[in-house]
Amino acid sequence: MYLKRVSLIGLLLIGVASTTFAQQPPKVDPTRLGIDLSRIQHDLRQAASTQSENHGLKVRYTVDVYGQAPRIELFTSKDNLQSGPAPYGGPTHQEMINHVTPQEYRAPAADLASLFRWLSDKTSRK
Length: 126
Fold this sequence. Notes:
The protein is an all-alpha fold. Helix content is 49%, strand content 0%. It has helices at 2-22, 37-55, 93-100, 112-125.
């Protein structure tokens, strides 16, 4: 009985989700927006002429673009989720150090053995 309820709820949710994703957003009809395109074109022509007169070659325009964003696909048909290659694991400590440290500051450590050898040579000669 419980399995039947869960499966019916799942089928209902899948049906609602498929109809929701299948619907396209409504197209915008510019004639019903209550704007006058001729007035906007006139204002743009007037603004362009006043800007070019005042600033010479310095032209400034602001353009607002509205459109439908592309659909985000997390898993494509190229992704093999069942038997695909797995990453080797998280980054190691050295890989993190190399990632956050600029190349200029990644110089090798000082060679202290040479320094101690030089000091021992200087002290042993005396």
